[in-house]
Amino acid sequence: MLTELSVKKIKKSCEEVAQILKALSHPQRLLILGHLLAGEKTVGELEDVCDISQSQLSQFLSRMKLEGLIDRRKEGRFQYYFVADERLKHLMAIIQQEYCR
Amino acid sequence: MLTELSVKKIKKSCEEVAQILKALSHPQRLLILGHLLAGEKTVGELEDVCDISQSQLSQFLSRMKLEGLIDRRKEGRFQYYFVADERLKHLMAIIQQEYCR
DNA sequence: TTATCATATTATAATAAAGTAATATGTCAA
DNA sequence: TTGACATATTACTTTATTATAATATGATAA
Predict the structure, then answer these.
(1) Chain B residues with beta carbon closer than 8 angstroms to that of A91
(2) Which residues of chain A are within 8 Å of residue B92 when distances are taken between CB atoms?
(3) Which band of pLDDT confidence, cut at 50, 70 and 90, is reported for residue B54?
(4) Contact (Cβ atoms closer than 8 angstroms) between residue A11 and residue A47
(5) What is the per-residue DSSP string for B7-39?
(6) Nearest residue on chain B to A12, judged by CA atoms?
(7) Helix, strand, coil: what percent of chain B each, to 5?
(8) Per-residue model confidence as pLDDT tens digits over B23-50
(9) Whole-angstrom Cα distance, residue A78 to residue A62?
(10) Nearest residue of A to residue B88, measured between CA atoms
């Protein structure tokens, strides 16, 4: 039986998860993440390997950073992006396993 | 090393996965799915338990059905909806395990 | 100290999704 | 055979996302 409090918790979880999934749910963002899962990359490296404009790439990266999916470190004039969240690594592994073959 | 063919495959996978994740990425659709994972439900049952209008519920259900996430069977004037896809069950289990506690 | 490179930001136009209200369809019970 | 019930569809408004272009910032090398 569900108390009012547990209903609130469930709804809150749904909102959080929905936001994360929304941040994932774009073909190019998934592709970017796929590349980052193989190791950190600069924006330029991603630009070469994904087929996407510099501007949009930068916007996608900053959105995913905002949502906590990825993070970055600066080195000179380069930004190295990487997957920050262990839960996401796990989730992406399952997605690849289930949907990519 | 990536051939042109394998790049195409990867892009196609990303599109498919993005579409599925997009269909998932709404708090109320996740809530609906959560309830359906516990067993099939009529639209009316879902309406009671989710806080959502009949019209929108019906639209959400038909969208998720279209994307292949759920299916339904008719019994008299009731429609019983259920989770159709084993991959989705697995994915949802991981999501709950990672993000809901 | 200026030109160039790497990246970010802003503005905006185009497209898609969500929310809402009204109406339609099909089934059953009286 | 009509009224009520369960659900679906349609039309429309509002809001969010994506795409694109232009400009800005900050670091380095010449």
Answers:
(1) 94-95, 98
(2) none
(3) very high
(4) no
(5) HHHHHHHHHHHHHHHHHH-SHHHHHHHHHHHTS
(6) B27
(7) 65, 15, 20
(8) 999 999 999 999 999 999 999 999 999 9
(9) 15
(10) A98
